[in-house]
Amino acid sequence: MAGLGISLAGNRDRKKMNVFICGMHPKGAAFKDGRLCIGDEILEVRFNFHYYY
Q: PDZ domain spans which residues (predicted)?
């Protein structure tokens, strides 16, 4: 299973909790999908856990 292949950066000031994509790996799932770009702000993260056996 491959990872998303993104690097994130945020503000040190907790009052400004903006998180942005600052890098992408060309073989990562996010880059291949094409919907995310460097500079995009992450507004929400939903945690869906999938277990493979």
A: 1-45
Instruction: Phi first, then psi: give them for residue 5, nearest 5 degrees.
Output: 75, 35
Q: Which domain holds residue 25?
A: 6-42
For residue 48, being part of any structural domain is answered with no
Compute the distance between CA of residue 14 and CA of residue 45 in angstroms, rounded to an integer: 17
SS3 6: strand
In a domain, 1, yes or no: no
pLDDT digit string (tens) for the chain, length 53 residues = 568 899 999 988 777 788 999 999 999 999 999 999 999 999 988 777 666 66
Q: How far apart are CA 28 and CA 26, in angstroms?
A: 6
- Total-model pTM: 0.72
| Number of folded domains that form the chain | 1
